[in-house]
Input
Amino acid sequence: MRALLTVICLLLALPVAGVLASWLSLDEAAMEVLRHQASTVLLDYTLQSTWLALGVGVGVVLLGAGTAAAVTLFEFRGRRSFEWALLLPLAMPAYVLAYAWTDALQFSGPLQSGLRAALGLQGALWPDVRSLPGAVLLFVLCLYPYVYLLTRAALGERAVQMMEAARMLGAGLRRRVLEVALPLARPAVAAGAALALMETLADYGVGSYFGLSTFSTGIYKAWLVMNDRVAAAQLASVLLVVVALLLLAERRAQQKMRFAGAKGGAAGGAMEARPIALRGPALLAAWALCGLPVLLGFVLPVAWLLRMMWVEAQQSDIGLPLERFIGWAWTSFQLAALAAAAATGLAVLLAFALRQKQGRLLQPAARLLSLGYAVPGAVIAIGLLLPVGWLQARWPEAPVAALFTGTWFGLVFAYLVRFSSVALQSVESGYARLPLSIDESARMLGAGPRRVLLELHAPLLRRSAIAAGLLVFVDVMKELPATLVLRPFGSDTLAVVAYNFARDERLGEAALPSLAIVAVGLIPVLLLSRAMRAPGS
Output
């Protein structure tokens, strides 16, 4: 079994290898393409991606760390409600947020038209949201929970106690927050910002819909519009290197965060301290800081999507396309269920094999698989099609292309590349709570590995396996870039349908599938907020 799992992990790493291998076949024609890219589009892709990343990075750090500090270090009315409500924008995909705010704020929209009529004005009341600053704002609103979640966990360990000690030494409130509490959470802030930046650089829906020249949109343009595999692979490799650096930074920050949380925990826990009570203007400032992200990133967009759906139902002669919607939802459900079942099964077997600590190649192969979540969907799609095309060109009689291109098998394979690491992390966290002594006891009683897995570990890992499957299911429901390229003809998912409607400026029709995606995304968010409210969490 270990040999088979090693082969599967290496196969799932094939898309990354395919992208990097494109540089090994550079000929004069490829060099000419590369020089053309460098002189025309590469600078634009680099600048727009850099400005987008910088803006989102600064925004998620300020908003995520600020909201985490507010609900952790201070006590005010409504704090416990904000603790879980601040997670709600995590259920809102960036492209869905873009559709909602574009319809609400566009020049010809009902909101701006009504305000212009009421105020007697002719020009636009605010800048066009479909711009680089608008994209930065939307990404900040839906990605700040990464920083908020990790920073809140870091501050909750001992920040209040340390601030109390600083107060007893005569430090003022501002100094306690800026010089005592927030430095404790610096690794958590860095880890959350790296996760947000990886999601930003991997995005295709917002960049394409807003007409931005980013690496993700450039990859699709080179592949689908220009029909240039070399250009697409080279752009994908550049994006892959950047994302790999961000992943390395995130892992280092996570290691520092674990070290900081373990050091001095007993001393800090022995000191009794309570969050600082807020009143008056400080209370209003806390409400504004915590309420605006929830309002702008979830409540108002959902309300506007519901309005769009209602207007579309009233204006359309045939009402909402419920029959087609059921078909799209069923396709999305089937793909998500297949990917979730396959990823969870692979994760359980792989985590069990890693627990046995046997096999020299399995450990590095599993870590290679864990890189998949950091790889953008655009890179996975290109990296999968390149080796498939290479194999088909050398063995035309082999059905390689028919197996991977335009089939559910190829699409589920891409999902496994992207999301298997999510399931593996969840199952491994479940295994971390099981002492190795129970394995040794079972072996002493004569139980073999198969019986240990099925009769001992499986019941104990049930909750972790369900959580793993649920996370993969939701991620697949929201996934757009790889699905656009690899989906079978006529098998549209909710994400693809919402994107196609929005691209054709049929935002009213995009509202129904968009709301369905948000509703599914709420499931893990609600479970996460429930877990964070549990005692001892």
